[in-house]
Each structure stands twice: as C-alpha cells, then as structure tokens.
C-alpha cells in the first residue's frame, strides 16, 4: 500500500516554555497522537543522497523543486520500515511512502536496491531508477523525539520535535541503542505545522505562530552540517 500526501509544511523554532503553552492550547482543538505517551515517540530515519550530495546542496541552495529519499521507523524493534520519497515544488510538499519488510530495508541500507525492481507499485520502480542512475547511498541516520497533535480536517498535524541526534557512520536503523551524537541544544524544539490548502482558523489562533521564527532547514541538512563541523574540529 502506498501513502500519498500533499500538503503545506511550515517549521518554527521555539523553546520549552512556548512548547508547553502551545500544547495546552492545542489540546482544546486537536487530538493527541495515540503513540504520544508522556514524552512523545521516537522517529528514526536514514537519509540517502547521491554520490556528490545533490539533494543536500539543492536544499542548502534553496532550489525550489527538490526531493529526499529516506527509510523511516518509529519502533526499531518492529519488522517494517517506510521507504519515503519527499518532493517539494512551489512551496508545497508531496510525500509518498511504501511499507517494506525489515530484511528488505537492511538490503537497501547495504546499497542493494534490486528488490524494488520486482515490486508492482510504480513508486518502487521510480525510487529504484533514481537510486541506481544517480548512485544514491545512505548518508546519515537521524532520530528525535516527537509529540504530535492532529485533526482529520485538511489532514492537519502539529508536531513538536526535540533532542535531534545523528550519525554519518551508523546506519543500523533497527538498532535498539544506536550510538548517535546530539545535534542541537537541549532547549531547541522544532514546531511543524502541516495542512492542506488552508489552516483551520481555531488552530491558527491557538498557535499564534506568526510570533515564532520560521525556519527552512531540514533535519537532514542540519545533521549533515553539524556532523561535518564536528568532524572538522
């Protein structure tokens, strides 16, 4: 099954005090993600890029039409991963996801993409062609803690991401205790607002997000930049 999502995504940098305030407001208008628990849930991704980091530099240079390929898990102990292709054009995001088994995901992490060629889903064939022709390889693993709210209308989601950590040498997506470096200050939290067409007025009012600093850098770019700086020290 392929998940195909088209929506607007906006990101803001906020602090822990603002985070708690917004969570209290949003509970009035939105539902909490079932996996939140007390402190949210884990998100872990391995990002792929070309031999010469084409996707990284296009994002860093602000190219309007660009893409990302990643493998993502929410439970490293699980038997599945999501293979995702994210594309941006004219400010809108399109994300298509394909659920694959653990063994197949491990082959992709080793640079063996042949299994994608055998799948019937067109997305699998598209990703296979991209990864083979442009020599895509795993470039970094990133994980963070996410606390999420949602409403079905407009496919609206509001998430709070914290404790970003990563590695450019460890691609073990299913490791129980992955060795990763912290990439941001402990008080740095990313607010992401995602919706189709327009943001519902009550949620917009609850967020009052115009007062926050909007950012454009992705977790992939941030992780590559921070890890390169660390390596140069």
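Q: What amino acid sequence fits the structure above?
A:
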């Amino acid at each position: 099954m392929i998940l195909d999502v088209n929506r607007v995504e906006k990101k803001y940098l906020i602090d822990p005090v603002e985070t708690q305030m917004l969570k209290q407001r949003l509970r009035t208008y939105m539902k909490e993600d079932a996996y939140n628990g007390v402190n949210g849930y884990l998100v872990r991704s391995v990002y792929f890029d070309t031999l010469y980091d084409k996707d990284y530099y296009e994002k860093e240079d602000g190219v309007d039409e660009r893409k990302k390929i990643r493998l993502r898990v929410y439970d490293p102990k699980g038997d599945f991963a999501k293979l995702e292709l994210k594309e941006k054009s004219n400010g809108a995001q399109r994300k298509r996801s394909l659920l694959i088994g653990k063994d197949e995901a491990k082959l992709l992490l080793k640079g063996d993409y042949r299994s994608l060629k055998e799948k019937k889903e067109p997305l699998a064939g598209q990703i296979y062609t991209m990864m083979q022709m442009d020599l895509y390889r795993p470039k970094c693993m990133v994980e963070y803690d996410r606390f999420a709210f949602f409403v079905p209308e407009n496919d609206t989601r509001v998430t709070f991401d914290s404790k970003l950590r990563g590695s450019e040498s460890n691609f073990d997506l299913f490791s129980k205790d992955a060795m990763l470096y912290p990439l941001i200050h402990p008080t740095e939290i990313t607010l992401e607002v995602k919706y189709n067409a327009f943001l519902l007025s009550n949620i917009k009012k609850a967020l009052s997000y115009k007062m926050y600093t909007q950012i454009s850098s992705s977790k992939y770019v941030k992780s590559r930049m921070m890890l390169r700086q660390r390596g140069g020290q």
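Q: And what stands out in the fold?
A: The chain has one domain: 2-232.
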